[in-house]
Each structure stands twice: as structure tokens, then as C-alpha cells.
């Protein structure tokens, strides 16, 4: 991954943004190191300088704090649990083509943000598995309620009528349960053409949001309490066929074989092509503050 040394205030970035975007288009990601980012406001300013057309998150699977249009905290995800490889909002019809991450406070240990090239992952996966996903797509099921997962009021906003209209507009099947919880199903392509280069990319969250990637103890507890159909999320082949643990392990193993890790230092700014590169977050100790931006909206063809 190319690295650019800055050692100056973030107001240097607007003059360099075209050059940085050109590097991202060629390499998939670029790190700017040594920016004089002293606080959260500085990180927000840096991200806004390098991300065109901010994209507001919808259908989030973990809460975030909003700092500016399209600029957020990292997901509130347990720091002792990994966030496996995924492409941000790859289950939505409109998603960010570019992501930016800026470090305010690095963790004491761990907390690495890792990247994997989706073209290489696609080439390394078993051809029969890829062919099956290309034929059927993939399906994500989610349960939104006050006891489990993200409430629908946070994930969508608005009232029930607005949520239903959003679901209809975005090809999401939905149903309400007796307690006012929401269950959704959406089918998406697992392999897409890059909106700029046309290259085929493995673009999804099949493994990350699958039940077999959960911590076994957490999965067993949730299944006992809510039933398999009541899990906060899981994934299937697009025709509804469950994935086996071996399939999920295989996808995660291919990601691991193609992973490049980035250790955070204060003032690091990472710009990522969200279609070409999957990203993850490893467990960590201590405080960790990474400000996240989403921009350059793209729409599925």
C-alpha cells in the first residue's frame, strides 16, 4: 500500500486530493502518515477534505456517532471481538465507493485495520463456490428489535410507514412481529463490476455477517434465546440455502491469505476504494478512536 508522508496540518489535503485519488484508483488504497491531527475535529476536517459527495449511512448493523454528513465514529463493536473482512454497506443498493479512516487515538495493542484486494480474493476462491454465488446471489436476513441487534429506529430512522417505503424502494422484503420488531431479507449480487475500472470484484459481507463467523458461545446463546430465525443477522445463498461452516471458514481463510495489515499511529489517514478493497478491524486493548468517512456514492447496476 503506498504511503505518503505529510507532517503538516490537514489543510494541505485539498491541494493534494486529486493526486491521492489517483493513487487509490491505481493501488486500491493510500495511507497519509504524520498529519498534525490533534483532536476529533481535525480528523473530521481531514476526511471531509478527501471524500467527495458524503454518503449518509442507512441500514447500519452497529451503532455509530455522527460527526458530520457522511462522517462517523467507528462502529460500536466489542473491542475484544474482531470485525471480519467486509465491504462497507455492500448489502445496500447505494454504497460508498470511497472510505476514509483517520486516527485520533491509536490503541495500546491490536486494533489493526487490515485490507484485502477483492480481485485477488475472487481469483483465489473455489470456482464452484463463486459460480454458485454468481448464479444465486447472496441473501442477508436481519432482525431489528430493542432486545437484540440494532433497533430499526436507529438503522432506518423515521416511522413505520417510512421504513416500509424505504424497504420497497430498496428491494428489501420486510415483516413486523407482534412486539413491533422488524425482520428483513434482501438479495444482492456477490460479484460486481467496479464502477470505474469494470474489473470483477468479490463484493459482499457473506462471511462477516454469517452466523458461523460469530463467537461460538455468543451464537449458541443467541440461538437458544431467540432461535435460528431470530439471530440479529445471518447470510445465505440467494436462493435461501444455508452456508456450511466449512464454506464460511474457506472464505475467511482466503481473505487471510490476501490480507495486508495497517497499524495505526496518531495522524494517519487511510483512503480506501471500498469496492476493490475489503477491510477489517482486529481486537484491541486501550483507547482507540478512528474517525470514519463514506463518500463518492455508487449504485448497483
Structure, described:
With 301 residues, the protein is α+β, with helices and mostly antiparallel strands. It has two domains: 152 residues, Double-stranded beta-helix (4-Layer Sandwich); 135 residues, 4-Layer Sandwich (Double-stranded beta-helix), CATH 3.60.130. 27% of the residues lie in helices and 31% in strands. One of its GO terms (biological process) is antibiotic biosynthetic process. Keywords: Antibiotic biosynthesis, Iron, Oxidoreductase. It comes from Kibdelosporangium phytohabitans.
Could you provide a short overview of the structure?
The protein is α+β, with helices and mostly antiparallel strands and 301 residues long. It is 27% helix and 31% strand.
CATH-defined architecture of the largest domain: 4-Layer Sandwich
Radius of gyration equals 19 Å
Order of helices and strands: EHEHEEEEEEHHEHHEEEEHEHEEEEE
Number of distinct helices: 8
CATH topology call of the largest domain: Double-stranded beta-helix
Q: Compute the separation of the termini in Å.
A: 29 Å
- Fraction of residues in H or I helices: 25-40%
Category by helix and strand content: alpha+beta
Strand content: 25-35%
Broad shape: globular
> How many strand segments?
19
